[in-house]
Structure formats: C-alpha cells, structure tokens
Amino acid sequence: MAQIPDQTTPDQTLAGFRKSIDNIDAALIHMLAERFRITQAVGEYKAKAALPPADPAREAAQIQRLRALAEEAELDPEFSEKFIRFVIDEVIRHHERARG
C-alpha cells in the first residue's frame, strides 16, 4: 500500500519539481519578452517599408518547422502549433497596430 505523505511536513520531491517548473516558466516569460521585442522591431520596419503585417508563407514554414521540432522533442505537435499560432496572431496584431 502506498504511503500518503504527511501533510504537515513539506514534500521535498514535489517542492523540487515545482521549483524547476517555476524556473522554466520564468525562462519562458523572458524568452517571449525578447521575442516580442524583436517582432516589434520587425513590425516597425514593415510599416516603414510598406510591407504587409502578415506573411502567410513564412507563417506556414514556421509552423511546419516547429511541428517537426516538437515531434523531435516528444512534444505534441498539435499543442506546439496552437501555441505558435497564438504567438503569430498576437505578432500580426502588433504589426497591424504599428502600420496604423
């Protein structure tokens, strides 16, 4: 029979897992912030150069590339596509705003 951890003492294994998750979450936020700083510059460049906010061919290539990376990393490619699509849509929204 499995032992239930005593709720009065902290579970060190769980705490270690959670600390790692917290560190990864922080890294993700910093990476997204850097990504959006760069895409903001791209949006400003596109606005000055009179380029369209969206680039469907680039988006399709990126989605295909990231799905392949997800498969290699044993991450659900459907999840990775939903995630990058969300990011791309937000970038396009920013580019449209820079254009206006």
Automatic annotation (TrEMBL):
Known EC number: 5.4.99.5
Lineage top rank: taxon: Bacteria
Any one GO MF annotation of this record: chorismate mutase activity
Domain Chorismate mutase: start-end pairs: 8-99
Claim: Membrane is one of the keywords in the record: no
UniProt GO BP: chorismate metabolic process; salicylic acid biosynthetic process
Record's keyword annotation contains Hydrolase: no
SMART domains assigned: CM_2 (SM00830)
Keywords, ordered alphabetically: Isomerase
UniProt-listed SUPFAM superfamilies: Chorismate mutase II (SSF48600)
Pfam families linked to this entry: CM_2
Enzyme class: isomerase
NCBIfam families cross-referenced by the UniProt entry: CM_mono_cladeE, PRK09239.1
Stored PANTHER family: CHORISMATE MUTASE
Name by which UniProt lists this protein: chorismate mutase
Organism of origin: Tsuneonella litorea
